[in-house]
Amino acid sequence: MSGKPRLTYLNGRGRMEPVRWLLAAAGVEFEEIFLETREQYEKLIKDGVLMFQQVPLVEIDGMKMVQTRAILSYIAGKHNLYGKDLKERALIDMYVEGITDLMQMILVFPFSPPEAKEKNIDSIKERATNRYFPVFEKVLKQHGQDFLVGNKFSWADVQLIEAILAVEEKIPAVLSGFPQLQAFKKRMSNMPTIKKFLQPGSPRKPPPDECYVETVLKVFKK
Amino acid sequence: MAGKPKLHYTKGRGKMESIRWLLAAAGVEFEEEFIETKEDLEKLRNDGVLMFQQVPMVEIDGMKMVQTRAVLSYIAAKYNLYGKDLKERAWIDMYVEGTTDLMGMIMYLPFQPADTKENNLALIIERDGASIQQSHGHDYLVGNKLSWADIHLLEAILMAEECKPDILSAFPLLQAFKGRMSNIPTIKKFLQPGSQRKPPADEKFIAVVRKIFNI
Prior knowledge:
Family (chain A): Belongs to the GST superfamily. Alpha family.
Organism (chain A): Alca torda (Razorbill)
Oligomer: heterodimer
CATH architecture of the largest domain in chain B: Up-down Bundle
Protein name (chain A): glutathione transferase
Structural class of chain A: alpha+beta
Strand content of chain A: 5-15%
Order of helices and strands of chain A: EHEHEEHHHHHHH
Strand content of chain B: 5-15%
Keywords (chain A): Transferase
EC number (chain A): 2.5.1.18
Radius of gyration of chain B: 17 Å
Helix content of chain B: 40-55%
């Protein structure tokens, strides 16, 4: 047993990707087990390792953690990415929750019917440019610091860079009205741990394709 | 300005109810300002007090907090209902996230077509009730001390029972848990008529919510 966190999920982004991002940004090496068949998933349930019969599952520090937010909060807390006090934590939580709402739209997008896809892209663009990005553009402009909260790298920064890149994959020019976010994106992408994660061969997963969607449906039989 | 926390939401449970529960259980008095029309919501948006143009919004300790989970985490930590260390917090978070999923599904039942309701409810209760029941034999879920996880679970149990009164029939430990928790003085008070606890959504309330939020 190596002591590295061990992630169990499909071989794709889904709900595990933010966990991969946060561990990578914190410079933490991890192992992965990929679910490819329904049988593997059923075995996990039968073995009683999934508290609510769901993945993501992250084995870390002797715990079998489930529930993405719980996992991310633990990692952030452990690796000093959660602010210096309760109020900074509150800000980080608010930012992360907002970004998560935006990422949820991207998460479900591959599973929408073909005829709805164009409309969904428009919705993502609308929300990103009218509701979420303006908030962070303003925050960065107002304090002029490199990071969102407390002048220090935190979970909120990792979540935001992940979201920016994910939205850009769908809407390449989405940052055109947001100069602060463009600079933020550049700064984050150049941080050593994140730079490494963005290189080919890292644990970062590619955008979901039809094959991934098929695997999800097969394994979870939604 | 210290003052009491001030809650901005519609006059019903929705996403604000868990916050009311937690404040009440912690013995914290709070004020409420109710959104009754679309114009009320627009005003809050135009005043720039809703970070992501959404409610719940809670004015607390000089912050205008939004995002239910962020608000709940802050209150839990402030009032020592979040465990004694990182690991206890992890357990509390896991339990809370699971019960949130359960309550979320129950909350959206009125907005779903009739035929899917029955199936969904049975599915989620079977899944979540079993797992929490299995946990262990202490009075509280985590660290042998009252925490956010216990309060959230009680809220979920009562909500589930409103949907299906005999839902706890297969879970004796949960029944005992419900009994113990309901007798905690602050919670007992919250469960009495005249408290700030809100009733289950009825047709009239659902219509108002649809109108205000365009859903």
